[in-house]
Amino acid sequence: MKITDWEQVSQIYEEGIATGFATFETAAPTFEVWDSAHVASCRLVAEENGIILGWAALSPVSSRCVYGGVGEVSIYVGARSRGKGVGNALMERLISESEAAGFWTIQSGIFPENEGSIKLHETMGFRYIGKREHVGKIHGVWKDNLLFEKRSNNIGVD
């Protein structure tokens, strides 16, 4: 992902926001705000003929050094590209890139209604680890968040 991709990336982010079950965000941030919250080494786009089909990135789960190898997944596929394997391709590459960057665990919080994301994570070897009930509100409605994680078989193994 390059800064010049941001216009298309943020449009896909807005499509996810519009579903009401992709994020607690209500609007895509500026690139500068987004940039400061995400790991520089793990930012990907799936592109075809100059059109971005989807994107994935990691953000740190904590500023504490003991969590330095744990990242939070963001993955969004454009509305016209869903169901075509874009999410699988992005997640495969994100897993590879995260391990190359030293991440031993990547995790996601997913709204229960987001069946496509749940299926993607399960397909890619993430395991369900629990549910945070009424963890946040969006548009005045409390939402649960399902927690999924994937531990590396290559990084952080003793």
Distance between the termini: 33 Å
What is the count of helical runs?
4
Assembly annotation: single chain
Query: Overall pLDDT, averaged?
Result: 95
Report on this structure.
The chain has helices at residues 6-19, 31-37, 86-100, 115-123, and strands at residues 43-48, 51-60, 70-77, 105-110, 127-138, 141-151. It is α+β, with helices and mostly antiparallel strands. The chain has a 6-stranded mixed sheet with strand order 1-2-3-4-6-5. Strand 3 (70-77), helix 3 (86-100) and strand 4 form a beta-alpha-beta unit.
Comma- or semicolon-separated keywords:
single chain; 4 helices; 158 residues; alpha+beta
What's this entry about, in short?
The protein is an alpha+beta fold and 158 residues long.
Explain the layout of strands and helices.
Layout: H1 6-19, H2 31-37, E1 43-48, E2 51-60, E3 70-77, H3 86-100, E4 105-110, H4 115-123, E5 127-138, E6 141-151
Parallel strand pairs: 3-4
Antiparallel strand pairs: 1-2, 2-3, 4-6, 5-6
